[in-house]
Amino acid sequence: MRSILLLAVVLAAPQASLAKPVLRGSQGNYVVSEFVATSPQRAWAVLTNFNSQAEWAPDINQAKVVKRNGSSLELLQTYRAGYTFGLPIKARLSIQESPLRGFSYKLIQGDRLNTLQGNWSITPVAGGVRLRHTMQVDPQVPSPLRPIYYEQQEQNLLQWMRILKRRMEAQ
User: Fold this and answer.
1) Which of 116, 127, 150, 155 could share a disulfide with 107, CB 3.0–4.6 Å?
2) Highest mean pLDDT, choosing among 12-21, 50-59, 127-136
3) Cβ(160)–Cβ(33) under 8 Å?
4) Residue 12 banded pLDDT, cuts 50, 70, 90
């Protein structure tokens, strides 16, 4: 009886809610996307609350907007995660916002990073939005450690997307 009830709940749930984040790419060039049952306004509000990232992001210890001029801003972040091998990594990012549609970012200055750039997009679709993150990262780590770095980075990207989905769908 219990398994029939569980099957009924699963079948009654919208298909999109069963979706998981999809990650494509490798070795520092990634695209991760996810359907989120929310409005573009809610997705935008959660995604661009940069100063709160340290409260929920798995790899960010500090995040602070240090300069803003309209839709352009500079964000200072400090990362510490499996992919940083326990070392704090500071990055100053230039961000260009396109309200309710997304933003692009690019490394201005950072520790142990040659390249860090990408963009986030919010695309309205039936029943919610498609959240998409494109990222290019080139870390300053020795060649033998790169596979470990990239594997940890990939897990982190998926975790970010799952957390954002939960935060955006919470009312």
Assistant:
1) 116
2) 127-136
3) no
4) very low
